[in-house]
Amino acid sequence: MSIIEQLLAIARNTLLESIRQPIVLIVCLASTLLVVLSNPLSGWTMQDDQRMFVDIGRSTVFLSTAVLASFIATSVIAREIENRTVLTVVSKPVARPVFVVGKFLGVSGAMLIAFTYLAIVFMLVEMHGTLQTARDPLHMPVIVFGVTALIAAFGVGTWINYFYGRSFAAWWLLSAIPLLGLAYVGALFFDAEWNAVELGKQFEPEIWKGLFVISLATLVLNSIAIAASTRLGQVLTLVIVIGVFVLGLLSDWMLGRTLTAAAAEAPETLGAQAWVWGLTTTRAALPNFQLFWLSDALTQKRAIPTEYIGFVVPYALAMVTALLALATALFQRREVG
Length: 337
Description:
Blueprint: H1 3-19, H2 22-41, H3 49-83, H4 87-90, H5 96-128, H6 140-164, H7 168-187, H8 199-202, H9 205-229, H10 234-265, H11 270-285, H12 290-293, H13 295-299, H14 306-332
Helix pairs in contact: 1-5, 2-3, 2-5, 3-5, 3-9, 3-10, 5-6, 5-7, 5-9, 5-14, 6-7, 9-10, 9-14, 10-11
């Protein structure tokens, strides 16, 4: 087999293995409940409740992907090392870098599937809108189409699991995405009282752009989890991923402000310049998840420039490449026998 065939085979097996895990179903269902509950819980602000929901709902989706990345990555690498099933792969003419990159691609595929599901759920709830007063009507097309799609996906998963012995979690998720997508598209043509409306009236392209940028952050989270799981177990991998995730969100506030002050006030001494250099290096090495957040732009209903997305995409790819190189270096000398 060529390197490309080996890479695709590992990625495919990892993808199938990942979406079959019960933790994927549990996290998706829990996140669905949290996103739905975010709608009524956001109705207690003194100004714009919908802005609060957009923040809370996107935060739920973002944090869920961080947790899911840790669990899936640990299962596909650390558990294989503990069970020594990895020996069946690396003992063959499969290079360890190919193994790591293949695992990353498979986990990323599973993560993007879960993220797509959560994104559609979030957009359906966002279309429903937060009820500002008791007189505001429920958005019945969103409720009817969304609930019908989830029930139909549950039926598909149950049918395939019962009659064909396939994974319920995998088939429920894979069928829920197109069904919820159809529900979302169908709900775009109706208002809360089933009156026909134009397609663009309820469509939110800027929020979809924000979700696309968050999906890039999930790739960075996956690479962090893959790198950590080459040496650590599930608990420590989860701690590192969440820790880097939180530090990455706060990097501008912690390091950026300190670096600006240090660069402006530091005297021309070797120790002061080393301090500035250390802060600069740390800030560059730490993934800046604030770049993927875009909360201010969305809550203030500003357009997200295409140039900004053109900057974020290569930044995410550069971070993924660097983290996969680190994962390969850590795994290269890992004893798996």
